[in-house]
Amino acid sequence: MIKKVLIANRGEIALRIVRACKELGIQSVAVHSTADTNSMAVRLADESVCIGPPSSKDSYLNIPSILSAAALVNADAIHPGYGFLSENAEFARMVEEHGFKFIGPSAEHIEKMGDKVMAKKTVQALGLPVVPGSKGGVDNVDEAMKIAKESGLPVIIKAASGGGGKGMQVVNSFDELPELFTRARTEAKANFGDDTVYIEKFLANPRHIEIQIFGDSHGNAIHLGERDCSIQRRHQKLVEEAPSPVLSEEARNEIGMLAANTIQKMGFEGAGTIEFLYENGGFYFMEMNTRIQVEHPVTEMITGVDLIAEQIRVASGEKLSLRQEDVVLNGHAIELRINAEDPEHDFRPSPGMIAQFHAPGGYGVRFDSAIYSGYSIPPFYDSMIGKLIIHGKTRDECIRRLRRAISETVIDGVKTTLPLHEWILQQGDFLSGDYSIKWLEEQLK
């Protein structure tokens, strides 16, 4: 078993990993920038190492500093969390070359799935359904026009190395295609250093359904059900729930086993998520995330599986702790991402000191956060400051408990998205489960 883990991340996910290590009897090391010296992860980890100034590129993205810190504390392994370097193949490769275990899949799998064109080709060859469109990168407007005519409008142009909605353009007419094609390539180059783009048929009102998968180094692979992540703003998830209100048991089992069989054929090790667009009863592969997800607690609540602990066990060379037939989905869970943003002023970031904080409690309530009263939210990083996760026997019970938990939550001193979540929970479309990835954007207009 791994004996000491260095956590190459910050915030709530760093604290989440610290807690898992403590429960496994493993030493934890929190790295931090100078802006995060007083963070909860630094306070609770067994050791901490400052790796640079506030800027991400000089700290949490500084590979030499992280590797030096791991060597300094004699760590066995490095857990990347999510974001930052978690899907950086070069980082994973360097971690292994320097004698540490990377808690995640191989650099080869990160690289292959990080390239959206290569990922699509790979999973299609292994039997996953994909959205009609280009078979690879599209080099020029003439080629783009041909594919758009074959697929039928509307189409979407996406950055091959992208994510988070950057380098993405929806084309509704052939006249606007040349300009939008150029814009997508320019954005892709600016954000990811790679101007390769590909084209897919644009689905009108799909759901965003993702399957949690897990593989080990012994050839075993399972899925742990789906999460519905369709409540989004600007392609960023705000609410996630499991199971999806629109999937039948038959559809769930079918797409889940397809996903599990895919990663087994790949020889994938660790936690990952295969994301699909779902419309009119059809699943279409979108991308694969080769890391733990922000919304992993939703799956933990309905399966009873500690996914972070499972990551560490699998990285230690152990077999998966359960087989597919052992996976049982129990009840319903919903997660709200709480961001330090002002929903009334175009979601402007709201860093600053938290004057008072009180987390909700009670049966079925979980609050994952690294904030505390007197904590100053730094302005240098992502605005998410917490996740409220609720479990109930039914979706209705879950929603009622969620409303009660929000009413107990106190975060004073900064603006948060909690009022938006309160509003969402009152809307008939959400209550009925009748929403798509476009629903929230349309409501906010």
Mean pLDDT metric: 96
Alpha carbon gyration radius: 21 Å
CATH A-level architecture of the largest domain = 2-Layer Sandwich
What would you give as the CATH superfamily of the largest domain? ATP-grasp fold, B domain
Main beta sheet strand tally, sense and closure: 8 strands, antiparallel
Strand content: 25-35%
- Residue runs with pLDDT of under 50 for 5 or more positions: none
Counted by DSSP, the helix tally is: 15
At CATH level 3, the topology of the largest domain is D-amino Acid Aminotransferase, Chain A, domain 1
Determine and state the CATH class of the largest domain. Alpha Beta
Bin the helical content: 25-40%
Q: Could you characterize what this model shows?
A:
With 445 residues, this protein is of the alpha+beta class. The protein has three domains: 4-103, 3-Layer(aba) Sandwich (Rossmann fold); 132-201, ATP-grasp fold, A domain (Dna Ligase, domain 1), CATH 3.30.1490; 207-444, ATP-grasp fold, B domain (D-amino Acid Aminotransferase, Chain A, domain 1), CATH 3.30.470. 34% of the residues lie in helices and 27% in strands. The protein is built from 15 helices and 22 strands. It has helices at residues 11-24, 40-44, 63-72, 89-97, 107-114, 116-125, 141-151, 177-192, 249-266, 296-303, 307-315, 395-408, 418-424, 428-432, 439-444; strands at residues 4-7, 27-33, 47-52, 77-79, 101-102, 155-159, 169-171, 197-201, 207-215, 221-233, 236-242, 270-279, 282-289, 332-339, 341-342, 348-349, 352-353, 356-358, 365-369, 376-377, 384-392, 410-412. The strands form six sheets. An eight-stranded antiparallel sheet has the order 13-12-9-10-11-14-21-19, with helices on both faces. A five-stranded parallel sheet has the order 3-2-1-4-5. The protein has a three-stranded antiparallel sheet with strand order 7-6-8, covered by helices on one side. A hairpin with a 5-residue loop joins strand 15 and strand 16 (348-349). The longest helix has 18 residues, at 249-266. The radius of gyration is 21 Å and the shape is globular. The model has no long low-confidence stretch (mean pLDDT 96).
